[in-house]
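Weekly sync, protein design subgroup
Attendees: M.S., D.O., the rotation student, P.L. (late)

Item 1: inverse folding check
M.S. brought a backbone from last month's batch and wanted to see whether the design step gives back something sensible before we order anything. D.O. pointed out we never logged the input encoding, so this time it goes straight into the notes. Structure tokens as presented (200 positions):
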């Protein structure tokens, strides 16, 4: 018996659940329709296309991640804020792999502007205020944090740290200590770049 009472919110929520269980790349109109026991055509009343559906999952996930990070940051500053931000980010990525993958999707400018992407940027810069970085150092630091957090969770989710006796959580904590030290001792401008080696 087909389920009734479909709404855009229910369709998007179902797609987000499927993203976590089956992978964001496997979210399709047919898969969501099967979840509700309806024909594909029934969904087009609520979402116009697969692109719109996936974008909606990304918007939902960005908001969830921003809420989780924001709650973790409340009342914290300096190293405590850095660790809280990082742990909330990692926790969301590991608990909701499909949703997290959707947050890396390139959104249409109008959609991105209305999403929580701006909140993420603002919160990242907020934790850096405790390190008193000026531009362009602050932007470089924002990029460093994103590259570290995103790269780490991708490798962790992909089993990249499964070998050896050192736990990924222990290495994560060490990485956060290194980031805190780096941000606290940010090198001044004018230090010569490392020499480039000629390719072999």
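Designed sequence read out in the meeting:
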């Amino acid at each position: 018996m087909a389920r009734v009472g479909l709404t855009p919110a229910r369709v998007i929520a179902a797609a987000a659940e499927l993203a976590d269980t089956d992978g964001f790349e496997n979210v399709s109109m047919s898969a969501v329709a099967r979840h509700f026991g309806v024909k594909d055509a029934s969904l087009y009343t609520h979402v116009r296309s697969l692109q719109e559906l996936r974008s909606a999952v990304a918007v939902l996930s960005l908001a969830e991640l921003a809420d989780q990070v924001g709650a973790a940051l409340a009342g914290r500053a300096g190293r405590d804020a850095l660790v809280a931000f990082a742990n909330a980010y990692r926790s969301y990525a590991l608990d909701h792999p499909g949703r997290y993958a959707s947050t890396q999707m390139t959104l249409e400018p109008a959609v991105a502007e209305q999403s929580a992407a701006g909140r993420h940027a603002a919160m990242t810069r907020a934790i850096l205020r405790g390190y008193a970085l000026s531009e362009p150092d602050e932007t470089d630091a924002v990029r460093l944090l994103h590259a570290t957090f995103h790269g780490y969770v991708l490798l962790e989710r992909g089993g990249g740290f499964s070998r050896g006796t050192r736990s990924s959580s222990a290495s994560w904590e060490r990485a956060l200590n290194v980031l805190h030290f780096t941000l606290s001792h940010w090198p001044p401008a004018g230090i010569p770049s490392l020499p480039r080696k000629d390719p072999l």
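Discussion: The chain is about 65% helix and 0% strand. The chain has a mean pLDDT of 91.
Action: P.L. to compare against the previous round before Friday.
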